[in-house]
Specification:
The complex is a heterodimer of chains A (about 425) and B (about 425). Chain A is of the alpha/beta class and about 425 residues long. Chain A folds into 3 domains: about 35-125, Orthogonal Bundle (Fumarate Reductase Iron-sulfur Protein, Chain B, domain 2), CATH 1.10.1060; about 145-240 and about 375-434, FAD/NAD(P)-binding domain (3-Layer(bba) Sandwich), CATH 3.50.50.60; about 240-370, 3-Layer(bba) Sandwich (FAD/NAD(P)-binding domain), CATH 3.50.50. In chain A, about 35% of the residues lie in helices and about 20% in strands. With about 425 residues, chain B is α/β, with parallel strands linked by helices. Classes of the chains: A alpha/beta (about 425), B alpha/beta (about 425). Chain A: Pfam families: Fer4_20 (PF14691), Pyr_redox_2 (PF07992).
Amino acid sequence: MSNSQLTPGIAPGRLPADVIARNFEDVDPPFDMHEAQVAADRCYFCHDAPCITACPTSIDIPLFIRQIVTGTPEAAARTIWDQNILGGMCARVCPTETLCEEACVREAAEGKPVEIGRLQRYATSVAMPKPHPYTRAAPTGKRVAVVGAGPAGLSCAHRLAMKGHDVVIYEARPKPGGLNEYGIAAYKATQDFAQAEVDWLLQIGGIEILCNQRLGRDITLDGLKAQHDAIFLGIGLAGVNSLGIPGERLDGVRDAVEYIAELRQAALPSFAVGRDVVVIGGGMTAVDAAVQSKLLGAENVTMVYRRGKDRMSASGYEQDHAAQVGVKIVYNAVPLKVIGTDKAEAVEFAYAVDGKPEAETFTLKADQVFKAIGQMLAGVPDGLSVEGGKIAGASSGIWAGGDCAAGGEDLTVTAVAEGRDAAEAIHAHLMART
Amino acid sequence: MADLRSDFLGIKSPNPFWLASAPPTDKQYNVERAYEAGWGGVVWKTLGAEGPPIVNVSGPRYGAVWGADRRLLGLNNIELITDRPLEVNLREIKEVKRKWKDRALVISLMVPCDEESWKDILKRIEDTEADGVELNFGCPHGMAERGMGSAVGQVPEYIEMVTRWVKQYSRMPCIVKLTPNITSILPPAIAAKRGGADAVSLINTIKSVTNVDLDHFSPFPMIDGKGSHGGYCGPAVKPIALNMVAEIARYQETRGLPISGIGGVTTWRDAAEFMALGAGNVQVCTAAMTYGFKIVQEMISGLSEYLDDKGMAMSDLIGRAVPNFVEWQDLNLNYVTKARISQDDCIKCGRCYAACEDTSHQAILMKPGRVFEVNDAECVACNLCVNVCPVENCITMEQMPLGEVDPRTGRPVAPYANWQDHPNNPAATAAE
């Protein structure tokens, strides 16, 4: 294969295989023991610590860091997992710069927070090869269906299993993990970590995962109701928003989430990418699509967002990372149309003020266009109340959590918290009836 | 999770971590917060005799010594015993003990050195249902000027006498808290035992001046331009405390006397070390005053994980290192180790070189490219390089096997032999 960054159209192998492999190495390599000790030593063990408040799963961060300091990383991991059973993945993908680390008092004091995310990764990495630290309570004889093996579903399932319930997870895709497996940039979860974490989580026992079981296609809510004592829906956001502009259906125009999912399952060196890539959107999905396109060897990658930098939902840290790998970010521009005959050739934009288009326009060359303007709820069974595009509240034996449910931000860590809390609610409900 | 339940003199607590008699245990409010946080027991702040309450200064009571990053290493205080009315303390103690039956509650006492005063206070506390008493013979500031605290603890005859009174007028377990402000800890410990003490606790604080205000030329803490010595505690005093605990644990006449270990306990590891050297439980103050009561959670998880890893029960740990605490003359003079520098871990700061070259044995070679290597022909294995290296485990000491020639001495490593029969020892007894 003799493709290069300058090869026109959408082509694989724009960079040598070893360069691509290197580009997709761990973005934030793990601490060794010395680094962990030095980093952990900086924690002040604050009272009623702001980092705990900032964590959607309320991990006792000062305690786990102190446990690292005193040479007991397994106890540290236990402190993390007690609150967040997917603490390993969250250590890799959490936007810590807008959560715990932003709240760290040393961020205020010195502009350098304690590196909580990396310390969490250290503790969980040390402890994961050890025997699974949780055991199941006496069997309750109750059976709970969890729909979706993403962060919310897995978190819910583990907590339910721990309480002695039997759990069956119904997953639409071929593999469990949800967005951890299909939706996170590859360099954030290297070495098949998403599957390794699922395998570790299942060691508790009492959880069965059935893949390729899509709600509404292979299974129905009524069917599940008949066979289970309670149902948890963690179905995520299966739909994507569309641009609603001419040319959207041209070849080369794709949903970013779909592209990221394919990329995660692909052999990277042979994965095709455009020469000129345009990503429309300002969230994490947009950044992940843009950065990975660049790492695969696209010559020009431009992220275009309709509002200003301060409104972008991707954090400053993520924007900087994108800029660092060579992604150009254009703020305050809205797409008018995708230009091309049978495939995309360019995108025309209008400059905008606060998301509203102005008269002046510009055009960006594009043989590949990724739409990353948000996902939406899809495939919700009848009879559930949907408010503001999310499943609202629990109803008669059905709970929901994660991105599909109302409340909280659409973050992995939020999904874990909601799954865990739903499990507690389900447990209370089931045990109250007996 | 290892079983951390503790039984000290028949006083039961869910774990061996008690708060020492000190400011954190002066009131019901604090003590209940401590119990809520998970502390196994408390020794209530020292009660004095009936009468007008003690008066404290209203300027600074504490001075401190810090390490890098302003980590508090040592704390010094000039606070006296409780300054609240006796009846208030007694009422609260009773209430707390009723509410928290599974936790240990011991009352610290300090009254004038006469029989009537002790008889009286023991009678007054009888009704509280507290688990025991601790005699404060340790406080080195303020109260000592009035003939109490360390003024008693420095005179073994007084220790024995008062302990005897306490055992005569009370059926409660009696812990005698010892002062480190003496030349040897053994006579006070022996005196406590002779007086009938059920246990000793140590160490109380060490007489100290933490620093001097160089504008006002006064020791700190400074009260209106003057300073007085205080009592020093915290991580800085741990080595002194460990030695004193171990001396009591191994000495023939005091061996077996239960010990409550006190002095700079901050982490599970500190606690385990005190216990290995003979302490049946530990008491903590400075760590709680620095970080809050929550730190006990790390002590609990850490000790539990350690015992699980070792497959040991807590009773296996207590006193386990005592037989290995020997006199210098018992050390193996034929044990040879050499420093080893891991080139993978070395960050090339050169501190080991500076320390060895300037102040020790010129046994570290600095090679081109800032490569630091040990010269075995000069290395006496002093361990200074290990101690000054900023990277843990970068420099380690490696034992030379028996029979191998030590390049420093040119002699093969021989089997165990100590100073007592060393040829250079004028007092050595001839082998033949």
